Amino acid sequence: VHIVESGGGLVQPGGSLRLSCAVSGFYPDSWYRVDWYRQAPGKEREVVAGIDIYVGDTDTRATTYAASVKGHFTIFRDDIKNSIALLLNSALPNDTAVYYCYIPGHGAWGPGTQVTVSS
User: Quick one: CA dihedral 79, 47, 32, 107, positive or negative?
Assistant: First the structure.
């Protein structure tokens, strides 16, 4: 699979940002897990959200969030853009990190997209 994240940038505290994970190379009629991770400076990479998607229709299942982002981030599939989106709402300075998309079934990582929350 090939993964490309996009949508990162500078956002003010309290603002919103939408990240996208575009994936190619999935087999049709299969379930895949897609996770979003982040790595802040000097910290370990941590999972923030994940979702199972079915390739072939619009089904999803098993949406999960880390406790630190629950109610604050939203993960969803965007079939118009053929991607998995991560919406960051009410951004906080400690959301500053490089955000990565990961496909556990393939052990595949994207290159990441930088999010900086600062005034």
Answer: positive
Distance CA 23, CA 1 (A): 7
80, 112, 69, 87: CA torsion to nearest 10? -30
Q: Which residue has the tokens 């309290």?
A: 14
* Tokens read off for 114: 């930088």
Q: What is the pLDDT along the chain (119 residues), one digit of tens a residue?
A: 899 999 999 999 999 999 999 999 988 889 999 999 999 999 999 999 999 999 988 888 999 999 999 999 999 999 887 899 999 999 999 999 999 999 998 999 999 999 999 99
Q: CA 46 from chain center: how many Å?
A: 12
Contacts of 67 (CB under 8 A, 6+ apart): none
